[in-house]
Write a structure and sequence with these properties.
This protein has about 525 residues and is of the alpha+beta class. The protein contains twelve helices and 16 strands. Helices cover about 55% and strands about 15% of the residues. Helix 2 packs antiparallel against helix 11, helix 4 packs antiparallel against helix 5 and helix 4 runs antiparallel to helix 7.
Length: about 525
């Protein structure tokens, strides 16, 4: 016959198993909002059946069941979805940074608006047109001076903003490097702790969740490759080993920039920062520098009108009928431009300004209109109005005529030829750059092309970012459908396990009463 206490053991296993299941369900519900948490389940199985105990083999067919037991508590996780998530989140990290940087660049350019650089340039050309209406009026000269100073300030401020953004991105790379090394230390520490716990035969579910969360964060910063081995995660970042079990090889900003150059760093926030700094910001700073230098010294073709008188011993680059350019030095009577005018090539506003005369007496030719603050090549940062002109607007050249009727040569101060030519540079075609990158067009057209390029790049970055947001959300949704905690599902499980536990407890009570009758009530009849 079977053991009297066999059923008590069977019920005890059921009570213990369903109590564990209820505790695990409570753990799931408690962590429903915990980032990176994976739902855990108790893996139940039928305990090994036994042959009924007796002196002789039983004639009862089959084996006697011994109840239920659980062999493990495991987390529900899909490694394939984890790999997909990390592969897509690196692109999300890169494009999010690039879209943000381009948005800041749009703020620097601030076009179209009434306060952008284009408006300042337009006001500068207009001031020359106003001066041409009354060249002897001091007010017109002061307007030219102030508009030129405003133009220089606009270039200086835009350059400063771009350089500040460049420095911010460099600083952010250093911050991300520190974060990478910190995450790597955390992963290595969890590798060690997980191996210790699982070496004792337990599943380190919560620690594995923490390690995966740190790994996901690392994947958003830079592209990584993860391998799960007996000793834990081995992680390569941008082609270089970062974590090997509990050993960490710290990375540096220089290492990541070298990896970017070689193509090993192809995703993540650091990738987006380097692209934004070295491609977007650097390119727009170069274009801004080129624009400032071209306004001051860029080659432009103009036509000097008939009757213009150039300063003595002036060398100009004359455009010949066959289109070639030849240097010509004008002296004496040859200084006056003959019928039909003369087509020449000058070096920007500075070159044209030197051909005219100021209000100074004796006669004085104009000098450089724009200069560099540091004496080097003119850039957006060093762009400034000539300090001599800023101090004395009468040094602004506006005339191209002189008069020798009194025996000495004097400037015709009321002449507006140069002022008109200056105003006409607004629509003139300047030469931008040299070699294969050379282009030509007006200042306004070139600036519009810069603004247009920025707009297209920002639009493309936002489009890619939206696509990545959708991809990451879709994959993460798949992960959550597998690993996430559903309150409704957990409550259903809780009720199911509770009823099972209650039923087992009721059976325990019933068998306790039966045993009480057997032990205390049998054999006492008739006493």
């Amino acid at each position: 016959m079977r053991s009297t206490f066999h059923n008590l053991e069977t019920i005890r296993r059921s009570l213990f198993t369903h109590q564990t299941a209820l505790s695990t369900t409570g753990h799931n519900v408690a962590n429903v909002n915990t980032p990176g948490y994976s739902r855990q389940v108790v893996n139940m199985r039928t305990s090994l059946p036994l042959e009924p105990v007796g002196m002789q083999r039983t004639n009862i067919p089959g084996q006697l069941g011994t109840g239920v037991e659980f062999d493990s508590i495991t987390r529900v996780r899909n490694q394939f979805l984890d790999d997909q998530f990390r592969n897509e989140v690196k692109h999300f990290g890169s494009w999010s940074i690039r879209a943000d940087a381009l948005s800041k660049l749009e703020g620097v350019v601030n076009e179209p608006s009434d306060t952008g650089l284009r408006t300042v340039i337009d006001k500068f050309w207009k001031s020359w047109n106003d001066l041409a209406k009354d060249p002897e009026n001091p007010t017109g000269r002061k307007l030219v001076k102030e508009s030129a100073i405003a133009l220089a300030d606009a270039f200086n401020f835009a350059s400063k903003q771009l350089k500040d953004l460049h420095a911010d991105l460099t600083s952010s790379i250093e911050v991300r490097v520190t974060e990478i090394n910190s995450l790597a230390e955390g992963i290595a520490s969890l590798n060690r702790e997980i191996q210790r716990i699982e070496g004792l035969g337990h599943n380190a579910n919560d620690l594995r969740d923490q390690r995966d969360l740190l790994t996901d964060q690392l994947a958003q910063i830079a592209n990584i490759q993860v391998q799960d081995g007996p000793q834990g995660y081995t992680i390569d970042l941008a082609g270089a080993n970062l974590v090997q079990y509990n050993n960490v090889t710290p990375t540096t900003a220089a290492n990541l920039e070298a990896a970017f150059t070689s193509g090993a760093l192809n995703g993540g926030e650091v990738h987006g920062m380097i692209v934004s700094r070295d491609r977007y910001v650097a390119d727009y700073l170069n274009q801004l520098n080129q624009l400032a230098n071209t306004i001051a010294n860029g080659e432009v073709t103009i036509t000097l009108p008939e009757g213009s008188v150039l300063p003595n011993n002036t060398t100009v680059n004359r455009v010949m009928p066959d289109g070639t350019v030849q240097p010509v030095t004008l002296t004496g009577a040859n200084r006056e431009i003959g019928p039909g005018g003369m087509k020449i090539v000058v070096n920007g506003l500075n070159g044209l300004h030197k051909l005219g005369y100021t209000l100074g007496d004796p006669i004085q030719a104009g000098g450089d209109f724009f200069t560099s603050k540091d004496g080097g090549p003119i850039t957006a940062e060093s762009f400034q109005l000539n300090p001599d002109i800023a101090a004395n607007p009468e040094k602004i050249a506006s005339s191209l005529r002189t008069d020798t009727s009194g025996g000495s040569e004097k400037v015709v101060k009321g002449n507006n030829t140069l002022a008109l030519l200056m105003s006409g540079l607004r629509d003139a075609s300047f030469q931008f750059g040299t070699g294969a990158n050379a282009s030509s067009g007006s200042i306004d057209e070139h600036y519009r092309s810069i603004v247009g390029q920025l707009g297209v790049q920002a639009q493309e970055a936002n489009r890619y970012l939206d696509n990545q947001i959708s991809k990451v959300a879709q994959i993460d949704g798949g992960r959550q459908s597998v690993s996430g905690v559903s309150i409704d599902e957990e409550l259903g499980d809780m009720i199911r396990f509770q009823h099972a536990y209650t039923a087992a407890a009721r059976m325990m009570t019933a068998f306790d009463e039966m045993l009480d009758k057997v032990i205390n009530g049998m054999g006492v009849v008739g006493r």
